[in-house]
Structure formats: structure tokens, C-alpha cells
Specification:
7-stranded parallel beta sheet
Length: about 240
């Protein structure tokens, strides 16, 4: 296995949904994978059996973020990519401190990527022109806003902006891009009424599944030119 193939892809929040699909996608390509997880779902054991290195992480504090970075450094001296998938979705509602909501959203969506990008920069550099990637997962609400998830939307907008700043900082060795999804796949518990209502909000009227994301990530990895951009994977939802 060559040096470039040996560098792992690091995925934060790799235990469920898109993060999990990405982890299996890379493992199926014989690409080493490191994932962070907050809750140990059964899927984490499956990933470990498939060869992934799974690391428990607490991104709710700066110390937890930096401790995770040090653990990653103890396992590898190079990264092929850093994919920021870890996320939380907390609405503003009665009985919850607005300050707490904003702090939690900014911590997971802004502070964690900010600190990790800096801490792990040495592992991404030094491998050649456009040889490494950072991908930030944002959200279609960056364009549209959200009256029920104001702090969430604001934090994802900050992450979107940070994409361009890190692209400037890390070029030409590291490409930095964002993916801004809307509905990609349903949860098993979503009932028929909810699904129909959700589908009606996009122009394309489908939940496309993980392949749309996997194909886009593959494209971004293969490019030697695209950086500092945000890619909407939203079925035209912001146009509704």
C-alpha cells in the first residue's frame, strides 16, 4: 500500500447516518478510517470489526476536543482527510436557556472544527499539492435561515464562512470545502405523513439517500483544483 493510500480519513460523528455511510464507503475502498463517536451504538462495533479505529470523544469542551486531537496524533502521523460530520440539532423552545442553546450549537459546529483544523493541520500538510482535504458539513439553512432553529442555523453559517478562511490558509496543499445538505434520508421512525410533508418541501420530491453525498465526497477528493466552495445537496429546497 502506498503512502497516500495509508493515510486515514478522519470522520467526526461516524456512528450514525451520513458519517457511518462515509466510514463504510472508505473501508470498502481499502482506505484506513478513524471515526469519533459520542455514543457507542452497535454500529461502532461493526466499524471496528471492519478495521476502523473508533475513538470516543467529548466535543462539549475545548479540553475534550484537544484530547481527541492528541489521541489521533498518537495513532497516525498523516491524514488523507478530515470530515467534520459531528452535529447536534437543538431548537429554541420554552424551558431551555437560549444562551445554552447558542453555546452548544457554536461549540459543536464551530469551535470543534476550528480547534481540530488547527491541531491536525500538521497531519494534513506535507503530502503534496492538493493531496489532503477538509470537508465541513453545513446545512441548506445557511442560505434560508430557520425560525425554529436560529442558533443551529447561525452556527452552520459560521462553519460555512470558516470553510473559505481555512481554504485560504491551507492552500495549495489542503483543499477545504463544505457540503450543505437538506433531506438526504429518513429515520426509520418517521411516519408516512411526516415523510410526505418533508418531500413536498423540495423541488425534486425525493430523499436521495447517502449515495449523493458519497459521490460528491469522491469528486472533491479527486479534484486538484476545487477549494473554498460550498455544495448544496438539497433537491432545490432553498428555492421553495
Amino acid at each position: 500500500m502506498g503512502e497516500r493510500e495509508a493515510r486515514p480519513v478522519l470522520i467526526t460523528g461516524g456512528g450514525r447516518r451520513i458519517g457511518l455511510a462515509l466510514a463504510h464507503h472508505f473501508l470498502n475502498q481499502q482506505q484506513p478510517v478513524i471515526v469519533s463517536y459520542r455514543t457507542r451504538y452497535d454500529a461502532i462495533g461493526v466499524l471496528e470489526n471492519a478495521g476502523a479505529l473508533c475513538i470516543a470523544a467529548d466535543f462539549s469542551t475545548d479540553d475534550g476536543i484537544l484530547a481527541f486531537a492528541e489521541t489521533v496524533k498518537s495513532h497516525t502521523d498523516g491524514l488523507r482527510a478530515l470530515i467534520h460530520n459531528a452535529s447536534a440539532w437543538i431548537p429554541e423552545k420554552p424551558g431551555i436557556s437560549l444562551s445554552d442553546v447558542m453555546q452548544q450549537m457554536m461549540q459543536i459546529h464551530v469551535n470543534a472544527p476550528y480547534l481540530l483544523n488547527h491541531a491536525l493541520e500538521p497531519l494534513l500538510r506535507g503530502h503534496g499539492h492538493a493531496a489532503s482535504d477538509i470537508i465541513h458539513f453545513t446545512d441548506y439553512v445557511v442560505e434560508k435561515g430557520s425560525d425554529k432553529h436560529i442558533a443551529y442555523a447561525a452556527s452552520k453559517a459560521a462553519l460555512d464562512n470558516m470553510t473559505r478562511s481555512f481554504a485560504r490558509k491551507l492552500a495549495p496543499e489542503v483543499k477545504v470545502n463544505a457540503i450543505a445538505p437538506a433531506l438526504i434520508l429518513f429515520n426509520e421512525t418517521d411516519d408516512a405523513e411526516y415523510r410526505q410533508n418533508a418531500l413536498s418541501k423540495s423541488l425534486m420530491k425525493v430523499a436521495p439517500g447517502e449515495k449523493e453525498i458519497l459521490d460528491l465526497v469522491d469528486y472533491l477528493f479527486s479534484s486538484c483544483y476545487v477549494t473554498g466552495r460550498s455544495f448544496g445537496v438539497d433537491g432545490g429546497r432553498p428555492l421553495r
